[in-house]
Amino acid sequence: MMMSDGVAVADVFDALAAAAPEIRAGFAGRAGETDDHNATGDRQLHADIHADEILRDRVGALDAVGEYASEEAEHVRDVGAGPLSVSVDPLDGSSNLSANNPTGTILGVYDAPLPASGRDLVAAAYVLYGPLTTMVTATADGVTRYTIASDGRRTDESVSLPDDPTVYGFGGRVPDWTVDFTDYARAIKDELKLRYSGAMVADVNQVLTYGGVFAYPGLRDRPRGKLRTQFEAIPMAYIVEAAGGSSTNGAHSVLDADPDDLHSRTPIYLGNDALIDRAERALD
Ligand code: AHG
Ligand code: MN
Ligand code: MN
Ligand code: MN
User: Where is each Fructose-1-6-bisphosphatase class I N-terminal domain found (predicted)?
Assistant: First the structure.
């Protein structure tokens, strides 16, 4: 029987919600580095690998899922005959563990083989490991935030981007910013409050909570910036746009990205429409 995407997506979200307490329980003692690097050159932490193993087992076991791709693995993994492909950043902001700062998990659900365009996304979600463990899910029907108790019980509320922006968070070192981005940042910092943690999930969650803009721009020596198109930018752009905001890579919506390299990077700006429009004009 062909599952409808809706039922299959709900199964993926349930698997993520069930994995979250197990991932969080595994943080203790796993902030250290392994001897290995991932495909984008990050040194892998034990917690990166542990989270990836948990997600691969749980998500990969679902009948609806045929492909599983991870920021921590070179190649897409065939996990069955299901119609859906899942991308994960198993632990986002993992370097924050050593400072006991927030981290997250980012997940995308595509109805096409990976690498895939943002227009092939049918759903996306993130988990934020903060004082609470919360999961934010997005589908064509809207955005929902769940608080995941240790016994798995969940309460939910709908999420929409506040109209009035309050916070901003910009990645990269100021000397590495381009002239155009520096001009944009100079204006924004006089209008909004700086909130930057070094974990994309936590920083974008603040934008969704308070309104504002998150960016990891293209840099002088790295014009594509740092963040991964498939694993971070596309799913987070889907969530912010579904919540009523906008995204850009400097020229167009991040969802129009169509990566041919599974591990490509892209500049990314997420937040209130007016702030994203200003970014595109500044970078034009
Ligand atoms: P990851 O831990 O999955 O590699 O992601 C880290 C990313 C992202 O979470 C964050 O926005 C960015 O790295 C922070 O980079 P800087 O340390 O250069 O600010
Ligand atoms: Mn990493
Ligand atoms: Mn990440
Ligand atoms: Mn990661």
Answer: 24-148
